[in-house]
Amino acid sequence: MNTHTETEISSSDVGFPRGDSPEEFLTNMLAFLETAAAKIAKPPPWPDFSPDALRDIAAIQDAVLIEKEVGKGEAGNPTVVARAGLLRQDVWNRWRAGVGIAPGGEPLSDVLGKLTEVADRQLAFLEQSSATSTSRSARSRDFRPTKPEQSRAHVPPNVETSSAPKFSELEDQYFELRKAGGASDSAISTGRMRAATFKALVGDRPIDCYLPIDLQNFVNELQYVPLELSREGENTEELRQMGILAAIAKNKAESCYEPLALKTIQDGYVQTVRAIINGAVGLHRLRNPFEGYRVRWPDNAKPSVKREALDYEKVDKVFRLGVDSGYLDDAMLGPLCLLSSRRIGILPFIRGSDFDRKHGVDIVRVNGIVYDKEKGMYKRIGFKTEASLRFFVLHDFFRRIGFVDWAAEQGDDFIFRLLASTSDPGDVASKRVNRLLKKAGAIGMNVEVAHSLRHGAKDMFIEEEVDDEATRLQMGHEANDVHGNYGQQSALRRKQCQELAHFDLPKEIDWSMFEGLDFEMMASKQRIVGRPKQGR
Length: 536
Hints:
Blueprint: H1 2-12, H2 22-41, H3 51-71, H4 78-82, H5 84-98, H6 108-129, H7 133-140, H8 148-151, H9 167-180, H10 185-201, H11 212-222, H12 236-242, H13 244-254, H14 262-284, H15 312-325, H16 328-340, E1 355-358, E2 361-364, E3 369-372, E4 377-380, E5 392-393, H17 396-400, H18 403-408, H19 417-420, H20 425-439, H21 452-463, H22 468-474, H23 494-502, H24 519-524
Antiparallel strand pairs: 1-2, 2-5, 3-4
Helix pairs in contact: 2-3, 2-6, 3-5, 3-6, 5-6, 6-7, 9-10, 9-14, 10-14, 15-16, 15-20, 16-20, 16-21
């Protein structure tokens, strides 16, 4: 009698018979969890669950998914099968963290046993809530291992059986919507490249065949992706021929290539994947496989670098190279960006009709959408915020060299004609300036780049003691003082405009190089593509 009582206690403390071996224990546990999963998938009408109950259910679902893949053997998800022990421990640790218990160092057998206690508690709750609890209870307490034909309906979807759309299909839909919404070709291209990286490293599967561990593995591999795979450099061609998997393997073993920065991984690659998945969830009401998962960012990932303002001596070289090129965009984008502090991406869209006079100074207004007369179509400019569409002041320097008068004569035509003829003027403009920077000795690598001129503009305003609010508004940012702008548009006032148009220019730059330029001839000069042939 005492022996029988002890056996009952031994069985009930985990919710199912322990068995005589680890294999039997896991088999019985799997049968028990399958029963729990079936009740969770098709339960009777339930009352509202408490947060604790929902947390228990989530743990059970994750555990069932893991054991299902392991049970398939070689046919199971290789990532899950290879890391099953870590995944089980992760489920347990996350459940403990949810109830405020610090992760412990229990043996795996104890972890599995305790997890089934969670499942047992939820089964009891379901049975009490069910209108047909008697019949369901009888089935739920049948702890014999489930036969394959009985559990087939509860097998999680896999690549062969899933009817959900694949990641590549969702990717196409996402970028088609972005393109229809006005996204630039360069933004689409970059996003496609990052999505292709995800497919190469994780696989192109139906959305319901991904697990949170897939996103984590993606991040872990990204820390070894060479930067030059996506950015032109000395090793770019070699790396592209090698392929991303071989490039990662080599960099992981030898640390021979500069890797992606952590911020690029976070805000670039992972954000793109999440955006595609989130878009699909919203459009098709699919389950998000990564919802609620908090990515663990690699400790060894390269920290993000900060862009630096260019010193005036280097800026002088850049401006000289631009003037000597004979092209208007090369010559004038640099000084326009530095003295206006505006992003290079919007400057190619300036038309003659955008120039005006206000508060006694020259200003430029750039609309969010402009009409291209040559192509007979409207273009959306690459502005970041609505504040960046606020007018900005031109320094008096541009009037003194005759640029303002010439530009105003262009009317509704773009002043940078060569850039306007490209599919993505903002991107081409940035690349043109970056080439000049490289020739002038800038280190590039996202430290000294075209955007550095904008950083330099802010430093210049500080040195010239330009009013802080005037600096913010000139750069296209919101004003600090919301109350001070209440009831009126947040725009530059007369005194601020005068200050921005007449501050002293840096003496380290030879501004005389811009005097006497034939802007019409420079704007009309056709771009020579490729390297000149020898003998010419």
